[in-house]
């Protein structure tokens, strides 16, 4: 039976993306090949417990929610994640995947809402962006860029224009928590009339850095 290494399964309000604010079940997988400078879930790099998919589904069902987010770490670092995502869709959960953009997304079930990062220079992992993934983004997917400073913002504008990402799917710009002032980022977006959604991490403003929130 397929299984996944799990750091935590918890119930909270979605803090980011198009479904921000909705009560959501989160399944956080263990392990990540990246080491972003601003990472706020480094506790998921190691450890975790092995659970078979039936056990995970049983836990998720206790939360009585329509929304499930599979996150990490980097979920796609575990091959069984693809099967798990498809099964969530089969069970009629609105399923989203938070992925770094460094690993191939081509085999992800098309029903899954992919929330894919593009890593900026400030992340320290810009060279890990797998740009071939852009060909597999669908209209219901989202591209997320976490910005650390003005250099990251200018880089983001260049990349978004170079790959003609405006209009391909929703673009999310997010200020790195406690690093880039959200008001400053809002001003830049308005000044440049960028067709993007700015987001802040709602859960951070509600519960700070507390794991499982």
Structure description:
The chain has 213 residues and is an alpha/beta fold. It has a single domain, classed as Aldolase class I (TIM Barrel, Alpha-Beta Barrel), CATH 3.20.20.70. It is 23% helix and 24% strand. It has 5 helices and 9 strands, in the order E-E-E-H-E-H-E-E-E-H-E-H-E-H. The chain has a 9-stranded mixed β-sheet. Strand 4, helix 2 and strand 5 form a beta-alpha-beta unit. It is globular, with a radius of gyration of 16 Å. The model has no long low-confidence stretch (mean pLDDT 96).
Q: What number of domains?
A: 1
**Name given to the CATH homologous superfamily:** Aldolase class I
Strand fraction:
15-25%
Question: Count of helices?
Answer: 5
Spatial order of the strands forming the largest sheet: 3-1-2-4-5-6-7-8-9
Percent of residues in helices: 10-25%
Q: Structural class given helices, strands, pairing?
A: alpha/beta
- Overall pLDDT: 96
- Which fold does the CATH topology refer to? TIM Barrel
Text of the CATH class: Alpha Beta
Function: Catalyzes the complex heterocyclic radical-mediated conversion of 6-carboxy-5,6,7,8-tetrahydropterin (CPH4) to 7-carboxy-7-deazaguanine (CDG), a step common to the biosynthetic pathways of all 7-deazapurine-containing compounds.
Pfam families: Radical_SAM
EC number: 4.3.99.3
Enzyme class: lyase
């Amino acid at each position: 039976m397929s299984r996944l290494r799990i750091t935590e399964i918890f119930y909270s309000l979605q803090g980011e993306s198009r479904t921000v604010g909705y009560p959501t079940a989160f399944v956080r997988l263990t392990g990540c090949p990246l080491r972003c400078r601003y990472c706020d879930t480094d506790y998921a790099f190691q450890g975790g417990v092995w659970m078979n998919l039936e056990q995970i589904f049983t836990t998720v069902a206790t939360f009585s929610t329509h929304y499930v987010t599979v996150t990490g770490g980097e979920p796609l670092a575990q091959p069984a994640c693809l099967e798990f995502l498809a099964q969530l869709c089969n069970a009629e959960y609105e399923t989203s995947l938070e992925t770094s953009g460094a690993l191939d997304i081509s085999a992800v079930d098309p029903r899954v809402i992919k929330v894919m990062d593009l890593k900026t220079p400030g992340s320290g992992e810009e060279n890990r962006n797998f740009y071939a993934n852009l060909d597999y983004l669908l209209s219901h997917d989202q591209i997320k860029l976490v910005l650390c400073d003005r250099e990251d913002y200018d880089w983001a504008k260049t990349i978004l224009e170079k790959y003609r990402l405006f209009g391909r799917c929703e673009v999310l710009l997010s200020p790195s928590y406690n690093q880039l002032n959200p008001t400053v980022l809002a001003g830049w977006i308005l000044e440049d009339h960028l067709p993007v959604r700015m987001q802040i991490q709602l859960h951070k403003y509600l519960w700070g850095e507390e794991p499982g929130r």
